[in-house]
Amino acid sequence: MTLFWRIFLLNASVLLAATALLLLGPVTVSTPVLLTEALILSCGLVAMLVANAALLRFGLAPLERLTRAMTTTDLLRPGPRPAVSGHREVAALISAYNTMLDRLEAERAASSARALSAQEGERRRIAQELHDEVGQSLTAVLLELKGVADRAPEPLRADLLRVQETTRDSLDEIRRIARRLRPGVLAELGLTSALRALVGEFATGGGPVVGHRVDAGLPALDEETELVLYRVAQEGLTNVVRHADAGRADVELHAVPGGVELLIRDDGRGVGDAPEGAGLRGMRERALLVGAEVGVGPGPGGRGTQVRLRVPVDPEAHREEAR
């Protein structure tokens, strides 16, 4: 039975019941209508409307649940699907919505994976060019400046030495940018050493004091998972430096049942009611690539901000790797 006929029959049944009561009941209507008769008719009308509303609410309840799910759905925060319930048409609508949501999430995950893969490739290319082209050019400039400074008279030599120091600082900055774009230590020494180097860079940048703690005996992680953890830690610390006005930040990586958990905490002003920026949405997109979840909220004691990334680890896969 279609939704139209179900609603029609609900209303028709209420009207028929009211008509039968008027025809078969002892109530008569005078001309003009008496007050008691008007009260009885009014009570009957109210009862009829209440019964009709109750029947419609029961029949349309699955659609209301679907509407709530539609208004709260966020593709970056996958959640439970609405339960398929109700009669044939309503159940088919909910099932079609769930199928559409599955397809949208899969397509977004695939497009995000392609975009982030292209982004990482572009980062590697830029880092390589900074290292090979700009870095080597500045190194050659430093050598030329040293040779000129050694032959220059004393007043000019001091100026050349200052230029040499400025050039050396620029070379160090370019190398630091290249390391952030392409963390070679991650591929060479692993996630623990890469996080230690990342924390060291932020700690010496004139911002908040940055500490870190990494559990021993972490489960084996694939390259994609390690890169996601590293990039989320990098973005989290960048947000602390730019927005938190914090005096201290901490990065922790723990083994938890079924996976690993990354925490970035600070003692700054907190997120408050500020909308999510591009950095946090980027974290969520990266997390979806490895089936992880990102949570953002106040830190311990309600002070500062805490970013929590929980990454599931398949124990069967790692047992196979261990073999």
Nearest-angstrom radius of gyration? 33 Å
Fraction in helix: 55-70%
Distance between the termini: 59 Å
Low-pLDDT stretches: 317-323
| Structural class designation | alpha+beta
Mean pLDDT: 81
CATH superfamily of the domain at 190-323: Histidine kinase-like ATPase, C-terminal domain
Give me the CATH fold name of the domain at 190-323. Heat Shock Protein 90
| Proportion of beta-strand residues | 5-15%
Biggest sheet: strand arrangement? 1-2-3-5-4
- Tell me about the largest β-sheet: 5 strands, mixed
β-strand number:
5
Number of contiguous helices: 9
The backbone outline, from C-alpha atoms, is elongated
Which sequence of SSEs, written as H and E, runs from N to C?
A: HHHHHHEHEEHEEH
CATH architecture of the domain at 190-323: 2-Layer Sandwich
CATH class of the domain at 190-323: Alpha Beta
Catalytic activity: ATP + protein L-histidine = ADP + protein N-phospho-L-histidine
EC number: 2.7.13.3
GO molecular function, one term: protein dimerization activity
InterPro entries: HAMP_dom, HATPase_C_sf, HATPase_dom, Sensor_HK_TwoCompSys, Sig_transdc_His_kin_sub3_dim/P
